[in-house]
Amino acid sequence: MWFLIAGIGLLLLKYLEIGFVAAWSWWWVLSPFAMAALWWAWADATGFTKRKAMQRMDEKKQQRIDRQREALGIKPKRR
Asked: Mean pLDDT of residues grouped by 10 in the chain (79 residues)?
């Protein structure tokens, strides 16, 4: 996501010819988009994205369990 934001920022600076980015080659300005595509391809190929999604689901599940135990008057387990 950071590569995408940086790419959009550099693209705007180059298009509007603002600052030192105006003198850069278009290859340098567009390179964050290529890095974002590489990052997403790597993250999907290695399962990084799926692991992060499962981790978030597990955290939400544990929070629900803790809230329910607290409502029943049972102390939540320490992690």
From this structure: 94 93 93 95 91 95 92 77
Strand, coil or helix: 65: helix
pTM score above 0.70: no
Collapsed DSSP state (helix, strand, coil) of residue 56: helix
Q: What SS3 state is found at 69? A: helix
Count of residues in the chain: 79
- Residue holding tokens 């190929």? 45
CA dist 68 → 31, 56, 60, 65, 73 (Å): 49, 19, 12, 5, 9
The residues, ordered by sequence, that sit 6+ positions from 22 with a Cβ below 8 Å of its Cβ are 13, 14
